[in-house]
Amino acid sequence: THSRRLLGVQDGGGGRSLLPSRWKSSQPQLDPVDRSDEEGGGDIDWDNLGFGLTPTDYMYVMRCTQEEGGFSRGELARYGNIELSPSSGVLNYGQGLFEGLKAYRRADGPGYTLFRPEENARRMQHGAGRMCMPSPSVEQFVHAVKQTVLANKRWVPPQGKGALYLRPLLIGSGAILGLAPAPEYTFMIYAAPVGTYFKEGMAAINLLVEEEIHRAMPGGTGGVKTISNYAPVLKAQMDARSKGFADVLYLDSVHKRYVEEASSCNLFVVKGGAVATPATAGTILPGVTRRSIIELARDSGYQVEERLVSIDDLISADEVFCTGTAVGVTPVSTVRVQDRRRHAVEEAVHDSDVDPDGPGGGQERMDGCG
Ligand code: COI
């Protein structure tokens, strides 16, 4: 069949891949039967997906060596662990990027819909330039995404229950010891069925403004989707979660007064019919959903501003929401600022009713932003 040809599967059993054995999975051992033509993801509870990793059947792998000078031919392989040199560029120096995009079951018949995959391809190309890596062409990227969806189609959730999340990775897989770009790169895509990202489901979330830990700095890599932007915010995110907040809102690292984005998504504020979001001037991730919302809002007649968004803009907003591939469009219910007095003083805004040392342990909670 078509998808069996796509997979390079030549027998009914093992799903033979043309990949070198070093890319074959050592573990986990998944169902060895090729089920790429089947529908239905086994025992999966489609109503309670959340955003966890459900291993699927196949991943896509494409390599690029110094001699080849570019990415040539990729292959589908069984999903599983990969072999990597201990001295690979990604493990030692964090030379890596990732992407996230979703495939949905179509409402109007068989087939799947991808949400703007070319945007992810272009963002990966841009990020690869920053991280000194070669990247797949837009055509290669989109082709690989489509192959990965088709090979894992039984894992695409039923309509309305979620999506198949695709996670493209571009890593410096070659061995290197001195600080330099790796001599070999690997592009991979794996897939997992997902539902809502936050445990709150579709309900509004509470955010905590982080005053000490910053996500990005001018001249840094905040504007590209490098893997190294994410582990450094885990501490802030875990602390916030332990206090009952869904995510953290980061401030700019220079003035410490402009909101940038959350750990997992971009931010929008709405005031008097005008929509504002932090401008992508190097420290904000240019989200595909962010761009789509800007375009949709402008097409619907809203005034949309990409600009600095201060804590005060946030506090006085009529509505606040977050956007991202994983989170979709998530309304924000409350935002807590630990030291609102400092921000109020810095912004020369008279705000006499806030006492940071008063009840609530020096914290001020602002409800009604949603
Ligand atoms: C996505 O929305 O796809 C992301 O990459 C965010 C990630 C933290 C889940």
From TrEMBL:
Q: Which GO terms describe its biological process?
A: amino acid biosynthetic process; branched-chain amino acid biosynthetic process
> Which InterPro entries does the record associate with it?
Aminotrans_IV (IPR001544), Aminotrans_IV_CS (IPR018300), Aminotransferase-like (IPR036038), B_amino_transII (IPR005786), BCAT-like_C (IPR043132), BCAT-like_N (IPR043131), BCAT_family (IPR033939)
Superkingdom of origin:
Eukaryota
Point out residues bearing the modification N6-(pyridoxal phosphate)lysine.
K225
* Nucleus as UniProt keyword: no
Coiled-coil residue spans? none
- CDD domains per UniProt: BCAT_beta_family (cd01557)
Composition skew (Basic and acidic residues), residue ranges: 344-353
Q: Which cofactor does it need?
A: pyridoxal 5'-phosphate
Matching entries from NCBIfam families are given as: ilvE_II, PRK13357.1
Query: What family is reported?
Result: Belongs to the class-IV pyridoxal-phosphate-dependent aminotransferase family.
Protein's name according to its UniProt entry = Branched-chain-amino-acid aminotransferase
- Biological source species: Aegilops tauschii subsp. strangulata (Goatgrass)
